[in-house]
Amino acid sequence: MSQFFTIHPDNPQQRLISQAVDIVRDGGVIVYPTDSGYALGCQIGNKNAVERIRRIRQLDDRHHMTLVCSDLSVLSHYAKVDNVAYRLMKGHTPGPYTFILRATHEVPRRLQHPKRKTIGLRVPDNRVTQELLSTLGEPLMSSTLILPGDDMPPTDPYDIRDMLERQVDLVIDGGYCGMEPTTVVDLTGDVPEIVREGAGLADWTG
Fold first, then answer.
1. Nearest to 148 by CA among 172, 164, 162, 161
2. Which CATH class is domain 3-203?
3. Tens digit of pLDDT for each residue in 47-62?
4. Which pLDDT tens digit goes with each residue over 123-152?
5. Structural domain spans, the chain
6. For 149-159, b where at least 16 C-beta lie within 10 A, e where not — what string?
7. Residue of 42, 89, 47, 38 whose CA lies nearest to 67
8. CA 43 – CA 27 distance, rounded (Å)
9. Rounded CA gap, 69 and 2, in Å?
């Protein structure tokens, strides 16, 4: 049975944030709010937790997992990016965008696209997520919570608990946070390419 925390979206309770981070560090899978809907998250280096997320979503190894970061300061550690791409990302973060970048050797191979050796990276504009990341001290490995057969992520954390209470370790109720997935932008080529239109597209000026 999963735990269920109600965390205030504007003034997150640090006690609950710390408990959530402890669950992540212990190898747990959590459901948490972002600026484009609820997502699944776990610790980067935990292979079993990542595989649990893949099973929940029924994903194969060609699906891009995403590193959810507090800001772009960790970018060079996990991804290869030139100055043009960096300026573009800086102008759209924090926000509902996922950027596809070439991964560095710091990213475990099992988390990279098997052929392209790429990784997704994003910086969400959500207070609960930012507090989680700050307390954790590293990015979360993450995937939008879109369940098999659905096109959009569920929006009600109580419904999410009912659906996933035996598959995740924690569901965080952070209030309503939208239901449209991120806009995905591939920055591995000479010109940015929008791979998926999503929540951020209206503000896209790339």
1. 164
2. alpha beta
3. 999 999 999 999 877 7
4. 999 999 999 999 999 999 999 898 888 888
5. 3-203
6. eeeebbeebee
7. 42
8. 7
9. 25
